[in-house]
Write a structure and sequence with these properties.
mainly alpha
């Protein structure tokens, strides 16, 4: 079937097809036969349509069953190997959250435990109220600063 027939068939059914569509059907016997077959199927479907023009609702769970079958077919095909499914991505999201919580707790405990190791905290630990000779205070301060590692 040629492109013009596929593109314009629905407009043909509604009676709004362009003249080029009908010209093509006059010239191409294969497309004319295909259109005749599709008109027959369309007529059968039109006969099955209810009189009051209401469309019946599908049974409960219909869409879930269809979606499940689509997923099964994707997994059984070669491309299904590359689509691990929703459960895989839920596991990845859960593992990421656990990793984030673990790193957050590590950083929180590291900040609170490490607050006494910076230079300002070490210098602040010096007790000026104790009696020392001035040179001893200066020597302690120099040793503290020289041995401090960040």
């Amino acid at each position: 079937m040629h492109g013009i027939v596929m593109d314009e068939f629905e407009r043909h059914l509604s009676g709004d097809a362009p003249r080029a569509f009908y010209d093509h059907l006059d010239e191409c016997a294969d497309c004319a036969a295909s259109v005749a077959a599709m008109e027959e199927v369309s007529g059968c479907l039109r006969d099955l349509r209810p009189v009051d023009e209401t469309v019946p609702e599908p049974a409960l769970g219909f869409y879930n069953r269809v979606a499940g079958r689509i997923v099964e077919q994707q997994r059984t095909s070669a491309w299904g190997l590359f689509s691990p499914g929703a459960a895989f991505f839920r596991r990845i999201a859960f593992a990421s959250l656990l990793l984030l919580a673990g790193l957050g707790s590590f950083l929180a405990t590291r900040d609170s435990a490490g607050s006494g190791t910076d230079a300002i905290a070490i210098i602040a630990q010096h007790d000026p109220s104790a009696v020392h000779p001035e040179s001893a205070d200066r020597d302690r301060l120099l040793v503290t600063l020289a041995t401090y590692r960040q």
